[in-house]
Specification:
The complex is a heterodimer. Chain A is an alpha/beta fold. Helices cover 33% and strands 14% of the residues of chain A. Chain A has 3 domains: 11-132, 3-Layer(aba) Sandwich (Rossmann fold); 166-328, no CATH class; 343-461, no CATH class. Chain A contains 16 helices and 12 strands. The model of chain A has no long low-confidence stretch (mean pLDDT 94). Helix content of chain B is 28%, strand content 23%. The model of chain B has no long low-confidence stretch (mean pLDDT 95). Chain B has 18 helices and 34 strands. Chain B folds into 5 domains: 3-125, 3-Layer(aba) Sandwich (Rossmann fold), CATH 3.40.50; 142-233 and 316-331 and 499-566, 3-Layer(bba) Sandwich (FAD/NAD(P)-binding domain), CATH 3.50.50.60; 247-304, no CATH class; 334-497, 3-Layer(bba) Sandwich (FAD/NAD(P)-binding domain), CATH 3.50.50.60; 578-636, Alpha-Beta Plaits (2-Layer Sandwich). The radius of gyration of chain B is 31 Å and the shape is globular. By secondary structure, chain B is α/β, with parallel strands linked by helices. Classes of the chains: A alpha/beta, B alpha/beta. At the A-B interface, helix 1, strand 2, helix 2 and helix 3 of A face helix 3, helix 4, helix 5, helix 16 and helix 17 of B.
Amino acid sequence: MPVMKDKELRIVGFLCNWCSYGGADTAGVARAEQPTDLRIIRVPCSGRVDPLFIVKALLSGADGVLVSGCHPRDCHYSSGNFYARRRLEVLKHFLPALGIDNARFEYTWVSASEGQRWQQVVTAFTRRIHTLGAAPGFEDAPLLMKTADMAPAPLRPLGTGKNAPLESLKQAIKEKLPDLACVIGWKQGYDDAHTTPLFAKKPEDVDELVWGPLNAANLAVYLPLFKGKKVGIVVKGCDSRSVVELLQENLVAREDVTIFALPCEGTLDMGRVNEKLGRYNVVGGIAHGATNITITTDGQEHDFSMAEYAQNKCRGCTEPEAVLSDVRMGDSPLVQGEAPVPQELALLDAMNLDERRSFWRTQMERCLRCYACRNACPMCVCRDYCISDSRDPHWMTQEAGVTQKLFFQTIHALHLAGRCTGCGECQRACPVGIPILGLRQHIARTVGELFDNYRAGIDPAAVPPLLGYEVEERNIREREWK
Amino acid sequence: MRIGVFVCHCGSNIAGTVDCAKVAEIAKNFPDVVYADDPMYTCAEPGQAAIEAAIHEHKLDGVVVASCSPRMHEATFRRTVERAGLNRYMFEMANIREHVSWIGKEQQANTNKSAELVEIAVAKLRNNRPLAAKTFDVTKKTLIVGGGVAGIQAALDCAEGGIPVILVERESTIGGKMAKLDKTFPTVDCSACILGPKMVDVAQHPGITLYACAEIEEVSGYVGNFSVKIRKRATYIDWEKCTGCGACSEKCPSKKTPDVFNEFTGTTTAINIPFPQAIPKKAVINAQYCRQFTKGKCGVCAKVCPAGAIDYAMQDSFVTEEVGCIIAATGYELMDWTIYQEYGGGRYPDVITSLQYERLLSASGPTGGHIVRPSDGREPQTIVFIQCVGSRDNSIGRPYCSGFCCMYTAKQAILTKDHLPQSRSYVFYMDIRTPGKMYDEFSRRAVEEYGVEYIRGRVSAVYPDGLGRYVVMGADTLLGEPVEIRADMVVLAVGIEAAKNAPALAEKLRISYDKYGFFMESHVKLKPVETNTAGVFLAGVCQGAKDIPASVAQGSAAAAKALALFARDKLENDPQTAQVDARRCVGCGKCIRCCPFGAITETEIRNEKKAQVIETVCQGCGLCTSTCPQGAVQLSHATDNQILAEVNALCR
């Protein structure tokens, strides 16, 4: 059934059975007249409302979505609405990153006795949506291509790790190896200019370990595969945060993982490196300077200075050293200054809602739906059971439309809310170079703002904020309904 | 699927603003709908019969009724489809009365909206699966927390009904607040005389196990099968040996110990039995005042105890009890009235609480039942009672009425006249609230027979006049005049508040509490004893202010709920519980961390950790489902696919 043309807009409500649905009933019993736009979906608890239902509705043509539950402290299930409050507040902040006006989504608390309040809420929300008008779609947004700027100067000197005590580290790994199923590290890949993961089981394997700016991959992605086995892993600072987050989420047990760390001097943006190398037949050699590497292909020398070719994330990096390690070597680098706004996020910040919709439409047109972003993500532990390619639950269709692809990005981003360490592997893996990291950075910033500067993957004992709640939230306020 | 849709007219309630026939006509176009009709009253006997007939005739395997709120008749229609041989969960309801016909007058919009609500219901129904309840065994035993009059009544009723009872009391004796009262309204009979025998019954009943000086440490399990860990606080006396002879407290040299039972109106000994009728009648040492503990030497009680029961080295101990249900009857406390600086904030010895006054009135109290001023021991001639001290006062965040103060103030004023015939009593009140049986008559007697002077108004200040008396400044709002009374004594009807650790207990029991700390009943009117956690019931003031008759009634009501629960040998769960798809589960435990009921545990399947739902504990909130990123936990009857079907039906 379509909405009544020129009269109604599509407004979807998710109401908890115990309080708000009862409140809407009370309003009915009191014959409290309301606009007719709202369609109510009854759920047991506001805590049952997955924020993805809301995004799904908004991407599929809803003009407004309203969630209502029991008042805090009055939840039928004692704490369901406390969790809902955090998750829905994060969503409220996140929607504009997609280009959706977050005034189109609201959540509130109405008890079963508050018929009058319900009438007010429905009337005010419907009026608000009518003021905003029909929601603009993504498919027909004008195309807009924008790219992120280069990051500013790094917070620490970038280098090639030439002087890192790699040999001592190898020795240390060999000492521990008898107790471990394997040690994950990097080794030379198909040529000198590329690395590939190393799974060292024997001491001679360990000799293959390499260290340097080519070690861009975050090896923490392999850790959950070894769940239950004792493994070692060599980490850069950023990788260590992924390991810590895995520990926080019980995806890896602390006693099962031995962390070997060297201070990271930065990694190369292999996308740009490969672009500059172009097509070649043979790598003739690679030379590490202190702050640059020289790669010789087909007899031609290419010089890559770290200052110019480092990954963007390395410039804003404040944790070149592992936040948690068992074996640590090398000198601590000096980090100076505050982390800047990441480039992908700055790019989003600089756009208005219309531009962001256009931007994402343009980017999603390019998306191949290859799921490389997901597979590279160390926090995407669902693996074969990702909800984006399952029938039960059936969140996504196999259609190739822009909204489906953007919905997948939203699933990934929201599932990473409060968990993403910003390692950037998703974006690095993207074969068409979509700056999807911006969505994750946007949520990470929101989580920090709402929950006392929380950063994922710092403290193994910390409870991720969306898996907890405070009875009185310091930074979440009930909004007025007038 | 073959779905039948019934669009109810509800007389003119729905049909008045919704074209029901048209809605039924539109519904025929929805997928899988093979039959649609618009009966006049679907919930009436002919309406239900028509549904049953249609199920048989059209071989329906799912039914949608568009009518009133599912909160009204979902259970009714589930039974209807069940009678016709369908699973009760193959039914959905569209609320086109409360959410449509009653809130809008425009027929076209209403008809369109109704058809859409039917469409959502059909979309959901197409994803429904038959669900079956599971049965499980019950431990037929009740645990009661709190041995006040409500808990005592619940314990006796349960035990009389043949259900063993574990009664846990925080203090060293049961009896609660009622044991401290002198007389009770409206009959003015002696509190000890009516409560005492019940306390003795508790002690003597073979079906009741009493743990005094004990508290709830931990609660796990679910209705029918709770496991409760109880902390037995160290009393420093082996109660197995103690005979309650009292020789120890006679000889105890620490005689300046504050007397909790007497509301600090007097002092007692560091080792004592709170009052002669205490149950259990066992001594307890107050380690804060005992010289053996404070000075490290004394041991007098150990020397004089004929039973050798004294054990200074005693530690807290724990017992675990397996029970089938829990009754919370933790009562109340008086609020800290000293925040009222206008009444002296606790600085004036003759400004006391009504409960302290009760101890002065009591023959077993510190003055042997003589009303005397705490400051100088003289009999007061003029007594002012101030009501609503900490009740109905928004300025201190206590808007609620404490319920019984009007009545006990009238009682205390009457008793004062009995004790001191020459005295004069004044009562400052806001409103007189006496709605109980014989209550208003009783308070009238205070005025008409006993000459108590009631002044409608608040007291603005109480201060000493320098000559040993107190000036009470107030206003008579009926006369519109200021009032000034010289009083010998001021009695404050201090408002009640929930017991200090009530919220902590509520969290252990997984029940909700309101912002004042009173436990939340399941439904204000229709389920005043149940909580939202199955198998946990409420009795007495822990749920909200009430007097003795109401507390006793609720104690009995809670016992009735327990007995009804145990009338069956097996319990059935609500099958709307979460289910884990073990293949999808990665064992991260996020659902375990979030579940408000502890209903999800970790299990091992082929050496891999997986989540497992205890179906009997799961309450069906679905928080786990929205928490699990893989969608491995799905709440039956509100699965992702069911809700998505509804969203998809609306947004395309």
